[in-house]
Structures are given as C-alpha cells and as structure tokens.
Amino acid sequence: MKNLKLKDIASALNISIAAVSKSLKNYPDVSPKTRERVRAYAKSVNFSPNSQAAFLRTRETKLIGVIVSQLTHYFFSTILSTIIEEAEANGYLVIVLPSEESVEIEKKHIATLLQKHVDGIFLTLAKDTYDFEHLNQIVESGTSLILFDNISKVVPCSKVLIDDRQAAFMATEYLIKKGKKRIAHCRGPLIPQLSIDRFIGYKRALEKYHIEYDPELVFVCDKINEEEGYEAAQKIIDMPLEIDALFAASDLTAIGAMHCFQKNGFHVPKDIAIVGFSNWKVSSLTTPLLTTVDQPGDVIGKEVMALFLKEQAQKKAKETIEHQTVTVPTKLIERESS
Amino acid sequence: MKNLKLKDIASALNISIAAVSKSLKNYPDVSPKTRERVRAYAKSVNFSPNSQAAFLRTRETKLIGVIVSQLTHYFFSTILSTIIEEAEANGYLVIVLPSEESVEIEKKHIATLLQKHVDGIFLTLAKDTYDFEHLNQIVESGTSLILFDNISKVVPCSKVLIDDRQAAFMATEYLIKKGKKRIAHCRGPLIPQLSIDRFIGYKRALEKYHIEYDPELVFVCDKINEEEGYEAAQKIIDMPLEIDALFAASDLTAIGAMHCFQKNGFHVPKDIAIVGFSNWKVSSLTTPLLTTVDQPGDVIGKEVMALFLKEQAQKKAKETIEHQTVTVPTKLIERESS
DNA sequence: CTGAAAGCGCTTACAG
DNA sequence: CTGAAAGCGCTTACAG
Question: How far is A77 from chain B (nearest CA, A)?
Fold first, then answer.
C-alpha cells in the first residue's frame, strides 16, 4: 500500500490515468459513476497524489513558510501552534524558521523559502529590520505574504496586529486610576513600530491625566528581556527615581524589574505596582502573579491563516488580491503585581 | 532573475542541460573548465535547481518532519530551534507538527508526513502512545526515524535521550544530602518510559540511603502541569503528610506546588525544599528561583540531527543503517528553592 | 568530456 | 464522457 501512483489506480480499475486524476479532483467532465469508483478505491487503498509531482504542473507546493523571531517565546509558539493546526486542516504543511531577531537571517530564510516555492510566507519582523526590499521581493514573486505582530506599514500585503498604542494606553491608564503618579516605562528598541506604539500609548495616557512626562523614567530595552528589566530597576533604585509604578513592554522585562525591586526590599505592588505585556505563561507563575496585557496568539494565528486562504482563493479565481489589515483586541489581565 | 531553470543556464552558456546539472552537482565527468563556468554563472544569477522537480528523480525532498508533543513548551521549542538551524545548514527544511499529547494526532501527522515524502521524521512520543505500529510504518517506508526525549525502546531506530533514572536519582540524592527525610514525588503519567524512569530514580535514591519508600508520598500527575502540582501540595497539606522536600518530574508541577505551599504559610526552602525537572526558562523567573535538573535541549537537537545525517550518508552509500542510542548528560542546577 | 534522451508522477488542453 | 499526449524541471544511464 505504499507509494501508489495514479497509474496503479488506473490499471486496477481499468481506466485511464487522466480519468483517475480528474475523478480525484472532482472535475466535472467525468461520469459520476467513474468518479465514485475511483474515489472509493482511492480511499480504500489510502491513496493521495504525490504533491511534489503535482507541483510541476500546478505550481502549488501546499507548503507555508513561517518566520518568527524567537521560537522559544511563548507568544510565538502559541501563534505557530494555531497556524500549523489551521494549515493542516486546509491541506498545508508549515515550515518554521526563526530569525533570531536578525535581518540578515530573515533575508536568508526568505530566499530559502522562495526557492522552495512555498505558497505563502507568514512573518513577524526581526527587531532590527528597517528596510523592506526583501519583503517586496516576496510580493513580486507572487507568493502570498502575511505580516503579523511586528509589522511594517509600508509593505503592500495583508497584516494582523494588535492595537499596541491603545493597549499600552489602557495599561498605563489602569495604573493611573490605581492612584499612581510616577510611572516608569521599559520600552522596546527604537526601530519597531510596535515598541514605538507602546511608548506612544504610555505617553498619551500620562497626557490625558495631566501627569508630566519625564524622559528619565523611560528605559530603552533592546532585547526586552529579564536582565534589562533588572538593570532598569537597579537604576531606578540607585538614582533614586522614586517611582510608584512600572509599565514594561514585555513580561520578561517586568519580571526582571520585579525581582530587583523585591531584592532591594520594595514590596510589589504596595511600593511599586508592575504591569507587563503579552500574558506569557510565565506571568501566571511568578510571585506575585503578574498583571499584564493579553495578546491572544491563537486569535492572531487564526486571522493570519484566514487571510492567506482568502488570498489563495482570489488567486485561483484570478481576481485581484485585496490586502487587509486585521486588528486583534487585547485585554488587561489584572493579577497581583498591581 | 526569478524562476530560472537549467535550460536557461544551458542556453546562456551554450552548453547542454546535462552539462549544467552535472557541473552543479560536481560530477566528475565534466571538464573543470565547464564546471567552473557553470558554477560561476549560476552563482552570479543566484540559481539553484528546483527541489520539487529534482525529487521526482532523486526521491529526496530535503524536508524533515518534526513531531513534538507541545510547541509551547520551552524544552521542545529549544530542541526545535536547534534542529531547524542544523537542518538549514545542511540543506534541509523542517516541517513542524505538534501532537498535543494525543496518539491519534500523532498517527495522523505521521501519515501526512509520509505522504509528503519527507526524508526523515524526528519525534517525541505523545504521553498516551502505547503501541508503536505507526512508528514501524515509518521505518518500513524507508524514511529515517529518530526518536528523542519520550522514546520507546522497542522501535528499531536511532534515539536521543537523557538518563532519566540517573537524573532523578541525582536530584533525590541531593535532597537527602541536604538532610531531607520525607521527600514527596510528583511523577508523570504511568505509560511513558521517561516518567517511569524518573520514578525509579527517586526510589533508588531512597533505597540507597535507607529511607523508607512511602507510596502515599507519590502523586501521579498526568499532565505534569502547575495545577496538578498545586493539587498535590494541597493534599500534602490537608492530610497532613508532613514532608520536608518535594521532587517533581517537571518544572511546572514544582512551581504549582511551591505556590500552594507558600500560600499556606510554608517557607520554601526552609520548611519544604523543592526540586523541579527540565530547567525551563520559567524556573529562573520564580520566587524563589527553582532548583532543577537541566535537560539540554540544544544538545539533544544537535545529536538528533547528527544521527539523521549519518543515516542519510549510509543510505546514499547503500550501507546498512546502524541505529544508535545517544544519551545526553544532565546536571543539577542549584538555585534558591532547596 | 559532451549531449540527446528517457523518465520521475502528475495535470490538463485537446481530439474523439 | 474518455483517454492519448504533452509538458512541468530535473537527474542520470547511455552513446558517442
């Protein structure tokens, strides 16, 4: 029962190879009787056509390439899980490639995927990606490109993202309403739109409630990891900056800062309230549990896949492809750190 | 410069398609001069042959399928990252499929991958996999199979694992040497070899130091997650079982138990020392930081890939394929919870 | 050393 | 409705 081909089915059923292929693909120009015979037999021997051979004619590999910046990040593995599941349900398989936050690796991966003739590429930008020539290349090649999470507005393709500005506004406003007056912010690196937007959201909330913006309270964390959070907290303590709250652009940074504050005798949340960003698994395992902004990876994954399928359908129907941008809602998860 | 084929190169250089193909593959029966011309030109136009078309002749897809039980688990995403990187360096791309700990999904994924004609399948068993017919199917199809982490001894294939028995012994012995007398154990489910082995390691350590084994102190955690750890701790407190240490078969379970103990006024490690298993990222983010057994995912990934490449070489040389089992060393990471 | 030719397994325009 | 045939892009045994 292994490595059957159309020819085997054809000779077993005493019909032509063409008839088998057409039956399997539900083409109209084949008698219902033949079609059913073929389909029944194919099913009984568990046959399905070799997709590599089919590619030579159809130009479809039924392969999707997904580039994430870090596989080990809970947020991305959640998105990936959903994409893979949805892809498989629709007959696609997913090739995964991590860019490790490097544009160079990102470029290399794209070249590799294009060469493998994947049907679509889903991608979240590396933090240091500032020019988008390699992305335009994807679009020009005719391969569907869907950007998610860390996106660029200037690339002509569909996108799935959260409203980072609004989410950060919400988190900061929440702290203000808790009575906090001096709120520090650990922001991400300077380039990505997403860390700019979170920073803007933070600033807007301060403005709205007439709290003076103090640039000294903003820390740029290039990797937004726990070490940088720890260091920022250390600086805050050393100055001393006398803050009563911290909004960090990532959960890891928030946790790193929390550790430092605790180690130095500050009580979280009584002395300093902390809010993170992403709702990674780890945020529900710390002491105290971390208040954070939930970014639903599963919803993002589903939306990405839905956009892709829509584009594929449009391609097949030879319609013009409409790019869409989907914004996924976030919510604040209140726990113990605030 | 896109979608070039052998023919384009051949006509540009005024030689035959065969000559081009042979030059690119460094075949001996082509003059060095021609070979160099072709290679230089191919490089200048960034050409590389279409792998789907090549498959039809070579039967190689340069695709590897990896099935892990849970993508969102730090340990697996670490292994995956390494495998993907090593694969790419060797011209392979990786299709990722999570089994979500279900044999049924595992079986379905294997069928899908076999049908896609991947060159190899790397797999860690779902927790409830007890028969291995579907794995033998892989072996019979001629596709290389490498088992890692949660393996089965009876499948004839190469394997990469840690010495779970020894690692658990080491963790338990460490607690005993710290003066602990009543050590509870949160074990994994009953079927997988790996959770059996960790349990045996725990028991052996008790035996060696003449501590009576008390079955009441062993809790079966089917999902070895934080909820089960919390529940086990709750039972320990309610009985009360009066333990002075806990060795859990996973970091999450250890953390769940730690939360419960803390919430009930026990001090970790003073009242109860806790040791986890895996050294997930999260174990260095809790309060207190978790002592645990490090399972090096990157080393495991590298070994898996090395075994695969070895088998591919043997296949090409038409040698008999030798299955190997590689055991990767673990170490105890002492932190604050013990 | 070179190239013409067969063939991998499929899809699809075409003739009947 | 049916099937013979071309062709997708490659590799490789074969003849020269």
Answer: 5
